[in-house]
Amino acid sequence: MRSKLHANETPSGSAELLAKTFPVKVWRERANTVGYISGGTESQEFMLRQILSQLPRDGGEKLSWKTPEGKEVTASCEDVCRRQLSTAGFVVRDPKQNRWVLTDFSKEWLGKCDAEALAAHLHGSVKFFGELLLHVEGRTSQSDLLAVANNVYGLPWNSLDQIRRRTGWLRSLGMIELWNTQVVRTDAGTALLEKLDLCSPDTARGESGSIEREVEISGDLIQYLSDSPKLDQEALRSRRPLIGYIPRGTKSVAREGEDSSLTPSAAVRNLIALLDGPTPADSFRNSCAENLGITNSSFQSTLHALKHMGLIEQVSFNVFAPTSDAEMITGVGNEQILVAFLHTRYMFFGEILMLLDSPSTTSALTVAAKERFGYSQASNAEIRLRLGFLQDAGLVERVDWQRFRTTPTGKVFADSLTLQNEVAGPLEAELQGSSEGVPSQSLLGEIVEELQRFGNAGTESEEFEKSVAKAFRFLGFHAEHLGGSGRTDVLAVAQLAPGDTYRVIVDAKSSGNGVVPEVRVAFDALREHKQKHKADYVVVVGPDFATRSKNWAIENRVIMMQIEDLVSTLARHAVSPIPLSDMRDILSRPDALKDEMADRYSTAERQTLLVSKVLDLAFQEAVDDDPIASGYISVENIIYALRKEFSPRPSADAVRECLEFLSNPLVAALEEDKGRYKLADSPQNVSFRLRGIGKSMGSVSRLD
């Protein structure tokens, strides 16, 4: 076998037609997925010829082809070209005429219909194509090939779908055969391998040195960046935390059963394409349901996400249209412009590129987002979505099953952005789920998902009221969902000692267009509800509010709380909760709610972090095995050691409070002797002990 294993250099010995028109891409630039044409696994090449012969066509037109058995199959040109043929470089969209046309390779191949050239082209465009053929030795099962893809080449597939697609194409081209459940390479397949440059497993996994090519960002991107307003650090810290729901089209009735989900950039592009000019919300909803399988409730979340993304806008009552730049920003080939645009709107976006010089996992990035950039609402799902956009733009690549790294293009791209500086944020470990006593991450996720979904639906008012009640229970209130005529939606009571108890009425206002109009906030009715329920404070929760409503709210001592602010509060409360007495002080400042909330939670987070750092310092002192100090450390030395960990530095009183807490017999983390402290138990046992105390203090069922 003379197949050549390469790192990242461009091959020189592929099939003649391939070498002339479509050279082999380096591994990181090849597509993970290969398309599937409906009509039969072994007939892909046969049906491809029929489809390509019908182009160019507008996306809305129908294409039809026949299987070898004579059965006719029909599908829209848009679905077939965009979802099945574009990733392998068979077709491209002509932006001037908005129609799908053949690539240069397809034009030449269609005249010759050379099976070897088509196979070589697929190898040059798609990961693990020729490499799969190499690993067909003797009789090999498709499960064996999936194991090779996962374990040898680091591809993140958890089903046989992508293996079956590749073997289907190879079977249709005569390169392999299927004997019962075993894959066998043919003589034609062996001959093809002689001509292919194959990627080594080390290079595919990102473990070998690669020949870096000099890269430059496009002129269009440079122009876009030069025209865009520059962000300062305050603006970067004020970016939105959550992108929201981007449907990937996996449940659409129009999608083939074997079709994989869309990439994030393609999903956004599809949504903008469905919104062709000013469109009533109902029409847009129907298009999304038909093309992407989006339910009514999910549609409202999608609409909300696109509005906050700045890609669509409301142009009249219940009518929406793409913004002036939306088509350009989401266009094919402008994926880097889309990333630059999203970086200006969402936290921890371009900053990811700074952290992936060495391969890293999604979980590690989530921790870094919280600890180093103060992104308290970071989650694996949000980071994965950002990585998807970055991968689409060729700025990040997956190097194995779990890890990602920045590409050379990504490094150049990052240098062109203004990035957020690292901040001294709170240390927020993933919440440990529990069945009792401690609120679980899944419960928090459920409440957040319901708030965002029902709050932006406009048609699920009762469900939104219930989700708001859950949110206030999570904050420690005894919250009851009332609703109905003449009553508040939610009554929240801080059950404290006599004289300290207070009551809050909460009005939940959902809105399908993301803004609660001023006519829906009746301040007279709120005053009546406040009096009827003997409440001390009034809160209105909604996605956003009209400007005049916000001004009137301050005059009427009513707190207007956006869903995003409530979600942020829940996330911080789950890690570093503040007492209900502090919450009362916050509610008494409707004119400065966000500032008061941020200050109180920052203080709580700082205290939590200080306890963690003191315990960590005691642990390090213990394991150093210093025979003179015997594991003890003085208060003064602790303060000195922590001087670089905090800004501003913690006071001596704050450190002593932490030491008194950790040395309390109930906690039993430290042992004190003449003003010095040493470790008394493992940090793990301390964590278990504190968690056990938390469990004993109440049942999590109160939050449900």
Mean pLDDT: 82
Strand content: 5-15%
Report the end-to-end length measured between terminal Cα atoms.
63 Å
The CATH class designation of the largest domain is Mainly Alpha
CATH 2nd-level architecture of the largest domain: Orthogonal Bundle
Radius of gyration using CA atoms only: 30 Å
What does the overall shape look like?
A: globular
Largest sheet entry = 5 strands, mixed
Helix content: 40-55%
Could you give me the name of the CATH homologous superfamily of the largest domain?
Answer: Winged helix-like DNA-binding domain superfamily/Winged helix DNA-binding domain
How many structural domains? 4
Unreliable spans:
1-22, 209-213, 250-260, 424-440
Q: What's the tally of helices?
A: 30
Estimated structural class? alpha+beta
For the largest sheet, list the strands in their spatial order.
Answer: 17-18-19-20-21
What is the total tally of β strands?
24
CATH topology of the largest domain: Arc Repressor Mutant, subunit A
